[in-house]
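Ticket #4471: structure export looks truncated?
Reporter: QA, pipeline team
Priority: medium

Steps to reproduce: submit the single chain below to the structure queue and open the exported record.
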Amino acid sequence: MPRVWLALAWHELSERARDRWVLLISFVFAGLASAVTMYSRSADGGAAQLTGPSLVTLASLLIPLIALVLGHDAIVGERERNTLGLLFSLPIGRTGVVVAKYTGRLLALTFSITLGFGLAALAASEQHRGVLSQLWWPSLLLGSAFLSLGMLISSISMRQVTAVSTVIFAWFVLVFFYDLGLLALLVGADGRVSSLTIERLVAANPAGLFRVEMMSRFTAKSTLVDLGIREQSLSRMAPLIWGLWIVMPVACSGIFLWGKKSV
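Actual output as written to the record:
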């Protein structure tokens, strides 16, 4: 059984390595990250200090997109090719199939993120390489959470076009509109919403949690205080939130597929 599981995970990795859309977005991310570090290397003063925040913004936009693209067709693609029943006949169970697919695609995502930051590091100064090294692990957590969400969307979708539309919608909502919604809430509530509520709402979104964690590293400590976010409280919540975002969607995918009588 472990050999079957490993073979399926390796198959997923090799298939994703040839996915032109994943490769395209990965090289776009690598190119933009390299451009940011090259510009910062030639800039002086305040412009050079923006390297960290600029890379954080870039990663929070593109890594969720790469992860969702990687995960959107994991199950529904097999369903449309009429090969899902064959996969579920393997001696690892339906949950094992989902976890193997997630693992293989997570390895592909890891390669994509490493490629992006690795190419950027080649063009960066020694100081900026330190910034890139601080971004790698949090970026992988961010991608893992969105990949897990993509797997769930793929599991509940009956057609691949539906999965594509849903992951694009999820990307826009979580990466763009979520923060705008919080801003509208703050303005509309006119101070009636507590800072603790806002802190929890920001941290509940993996993209928001990633930005806030990175902001605590690359900006002044007073910045988070001005936003009503307590760094100590955030550091306690972060492991639990990351764990829930990474584990729960994959687990729900397995539960949903177990509940299907036919696929």
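Status: closed, not a bug. The export was complete when the record was re-opened. Leaving a note from the reviewer for reference: The first helix runs from residue 2 to 17.
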